[in-house]
Amino acid sequence: MFAYTGKILHVDLTNQTARIQRVDEDFLKKYVGGVSLAARLAYDNTPKGADPLGPENALCFATSAFGGTIVPVGNKYGVAAKSPLTGFLGDCLSTSYFAAVIKRAGYDGIVIKGKAEKPTYVFVDDDVVQFKDAAHLWGMETFQTEEAIRGEMGDEGVRSCTIGPAGEALVLFANITNDRGRQAGRCGLGAVMGSKLLKAIAVRGSKPVEVADAEALCAMSLELAQTAQGTKTEKYRTLGTPANVLTLNRMGVLPTRNFQEGVFEAAEKVSGEYMHEHYTDKAVACAGCPIACEQVVSVKDGVYKGARTSVDYESLFALGTSCGLDYFPGIIKAIELCDRLGMDTMSCGVTISWAMECFEKGILTKEDFDGLELYFGNHEAEAALVEKIAHREGIGDLLAEGVKRASEKVGQGSEHFAMHVKGLEFAGYDPRGCQTFALGAAVGTRGPCHNRSLAYEADTHGEVDRFSGGPEKGQIAKDKEEFAALLDTLMLCKFIRGCFKDLYEEAAQLYTLTTGIEMTAEELKEVAERCWNLKKAFNIREGWTKDDDWLPPRFLEDPIPAGTSKGYVVKPDDLRVMIDAYYEARGWTPEGLIPQEKLIALGLEDLAQEIGV
Amino acid sequence: MRLPVELFGLARRLSGEMEVIVEVSDEATLHDVVVALTKRFPAFLGPLVVPGTYELEEPYFFNYDGRRVAKSLKEKPKEGDRLLLFLLDAGG
Amino acid sequence: MPYQYIICDPDKCTGCQGCELACSVTKHGIFNPLLSRIRNVRIEPVVMLSVACKLCEDPPCVISCPRKALSQDVETGIILVDDDLCDGCGWCIEACDFGAILLNPDTKRVEICDLCVDKDEPECVKFCGKEALYLATPEVVAQRARRDVVTRLLQELLAS
User: Contact B71/B77 with Cβ under 8 angstroms?
Assistant: First the structure.
């Protein structure tokens, strides 16, 4: 076998045992890797109705054919489990060295089940799996843990994914961190690890990765890497994704003060351009990445002097514009805290935004917030609140449940502006002015995710009229989803997508050169469609109904008050039409369920039996 | 006609301006606007504007007042239009 | 005649470690950083630099070898390893100040950067997308630094 190892490592924390599941090339060609393989492992290893924070929930890591090779931006891993935040499939991707060492240790995937008796970390040292005491690590921050393990092992080649205090406290949007600044961010997979008393997974891999045609692969990789230095990735390399702030603001869809508005009066002061001028130290890369998009920024003076982290657009909007912050160092500080404590910046920020609106409307008071005056823009209160949430202290305990549960508990009309779908907090594009994304957000299997959907591209690039919802958007949303799913499966970073002339053809070529397995563009399209249906099947098994595909009331009832997108809402009738058209484009029933024939045609016969109609 | 052009990202960095007024003929196309901008800011040539053809490099495009994306540089802006030299390759 | 060796510019290096993969696939046909003769050091979050053999004058590795398995090519300055004499003791690794020698666990012989003499240019340099790696003599390295600082200092004069 080339590039793949054919082995999935199964770890049982309860009994402290490990075993190998062998998989063949047919299986690997079907699921390829990444999110798709992780979803398959989750489907197979987590029983229906499992408690997401219980021992039966399987935490499934999957690498890809390209992991550990010279294919640019190919060192990524997918990780999936039943999400404690949504109750549906939480599929994440992260990147960099941790992905490469899993492959070099000899595995295409790792499945973790059970629950340890006490804080533990698992050390995978090529073929040897050890269960190590983590009492001295419990309570440590994410990167701190990684460094401590490396120090213990005396080998910087040991890479780890870790949880911080937030994962330990079972914050429902706690994340998994690796290589300092990379996260499997959303859906609370950090809480899944925390519920297993699993502080970290450390891996050392010394084995070589061999590909089918090294010479041809290197030539193609070199060309791709060189294109990636050019204009197609300029935005990522210089400003990074924060370049979105001013453009989305100008379009009137920049989430401001909990999505009350689409224009932020202080957008210039929290823009990518401003960040680049005042705070950016350097752009660094993931393992094997020629682009280097990670913008490391730091605060040189003022009350947050010394704060240092990486800033991306989604973190910027959630903890910044959505919270009304016009003071960039305050945003950097909040992001840094989330990173160190191990929490999803997006969910945290949107939950805090909700809390701020509750404060300003008098639904929650200063007393509820333990003395914090949580008005929009109060960066000090925000930083204090982030710490409270990570430790479930005071009001932090309520907010750690995420905005859906928090608003259900508090009531008093606060559900109207709890900005989530299926329990996962919203991404940084106001759907009232990006109505293809309105659809993509409503139907996304893990929630309103820009990354899995990519539907907002149709809106921002003028492929469609972004101000209205129509049936043609059904097919568009489906096509965008599958494009994303393909990249998440192969795995290739989405930032390189502009560097291909024909992604499907070239990706199929790269895959064949790497694995020696013949793959065509058509087959890759099928892999992507299979992946999406697999994720959907997991959700159906866990009780999804079409009522779960909708949008929060604010988007349907409150028109955007000002700016280029002034006056627009997502009309419920339009949303219904779009969702129906999407189900049809997907070949699903009007109820959004999957016909048996469809599943069988995709080679998912076992799923056809279990959930097909 | 005089057309206001708002500049973002690289365009802003290379020109040092957030917004400029471009002077073009009444029959001018967006392509002519690019030529006029490049004349004024030669630094655009290469990173932002393709030398020779004066097409815009990939992630950059024109947007009318944040509402409507220009489908091609052959389009003719009207007096009173407000142009945005946009980039949005998204994600993140 | 001063030797050319591989230099890494820390301002340009992004820590991607692609150089390690380029080297191991060139020398061994597989991808494994442990078999790369150039290694990247990454101290989070912004310190990154790749290190390969510096072709020292009076190389400590050559001097230290108990079996005289190492020698320095007079023309190119690269360190040559006699596989028949080398027995993998690793003494040269301890002697090298730069950690630029690797011990191949399969062959039990050491390997040292040879600037890809059999190719047009070193593969790591070829693969470095940021052009952080380059081949240069000490004089050229110093030249670049001087030019860089003068250019920055006298920007206004250059612009006029």
Answer: no
Report pLDDT digits (tens) over B57-78: 877 889 999 888 998 999 999 9
Residue A514 to chain C, least CA–CA distance (Å): 11
Its CATH class, for the domain covering C53-111, is alpha beta
Q: Is C101 helix (H, G, I), strand (E, B) or coil?
A: strand
**Residue A203: closest CA among A167, A161, A151:** A161
Share of chain A above pLDDT 90, in %: 91
pLDDT of residue C159: 64
- Angle formed by the axes of helices A345-360 and A402-410, nearest 10°: 20
Q: How many other CB atoms are found less than 10 A from the CB of residue C126?
A: 16
Q: Which of A246, A293, A462 sits opposite B69 (nearest CB)?
A: A462
What is the CATH number that goes with domain C1-52+113-160? 3.30.70.20
Confidence category of residue A518, pLDDT binned at 50, 70, 90 = very high
CA–CA distance, A500 with A491 (Å, rounded to integer) = 15
**In this predicted complex, what is the ipTM?**
0.91
User: Residue holding tokens 């299997």?
Assistant: A445
Please say whether the beta carbons of A174 and A343 come within 8 A: yes
In A400-521, the DSSP E strands lie at 420-421, 424-425
- C-beta of residue A41 within 8 angstroms of C-beta of residue A109: yes
**Topology agreement, domain C1-52+113-160 and domain C53-111:** yes
Long-range own/partner contacts, residues A404-411 (CB < 8 A, 24 or more apart)? A404/A85, A405/A172, A406/A351, A406/A354, A406/A355, A407/A354, A410/A358, A410/A363, A410/A364
- For the CA atoms of chain B, what is the radius of gyration? 12
Nearest to A292 among C16, C24, C34 (CB): C16
Which parts of B1-92 fold into alpha helices (H)?
A: 9-15, 30-40
d(CA B54, CA B37): 10
B-chain residues near A495 (CB < 8 A)? 91-92
Rg (CA), chain A: 22
| All structural domains of chain C with their residue ranges | 1-52+113-160, 53-111
Could you tell me which of A82, A37, A90 has the C-alpha nearest to residue A57?
Answer: A82
Angle at A232 between CA A229 and CA A235, to 5 degrees: 90
Q: Looking at the partner chain, which of C25, C32, C45 has a beta carbon nearest the beta carbon of A214?
A: C25
Phi, psi of A574 (to 5 degrees): -65, -40
Q: How confident is the model at residue A239 (pLDDT cuts 50, 70, 90)?
A: confident
Residues 19-48 of B with CB under 8 A from A: 47-48
Higher pLDDT among residues B10 and A37, named by residue: A37
Average pLDDT over residues A468-472: 93
3-class secondary-structure state, position A241: helix
pLDDT recorded at residue B86 = 83
Interface-testing mutation among A222, A223, A234, A279, with chain C (most C C-beta atoms within 10 A): A222
- For residue A155, give how far its alpha carbon lies from the nearest alpha carbon of chain C (Å): 12
Distance CA A163, CA A84 (A): 15
Instruction: Give percent helix, percent strand, percent coil of chain A, each to the nearest 5.
Output: 45, 15, 40
Domains and CATH numbers, chain A: 7-204 (3.60.9.10), 233-419 (1.10.569.10), 431-551+571-611 (1.10.599.10)
List, for residues C24-36, the tens digit of each pLDDT value: 999 999 999 999 9
Give the span between the Cα atoms of A166 and A164, in whole angstroms. Answer: 5
Residue of A358, A484, A352, A403 lying closest to A188 (CA atoms): A403
Pairing of strands C110-112, C101-103: antiparallel
Give the residues across from C8 on adjacent strands.
Answer: C133
Q: Give the pLDDT confidence score for residue C1 in this predicted structure.
A: 67
Single out the residue of A157, A116, A107 nearest to residue A137, CA to CA: A116
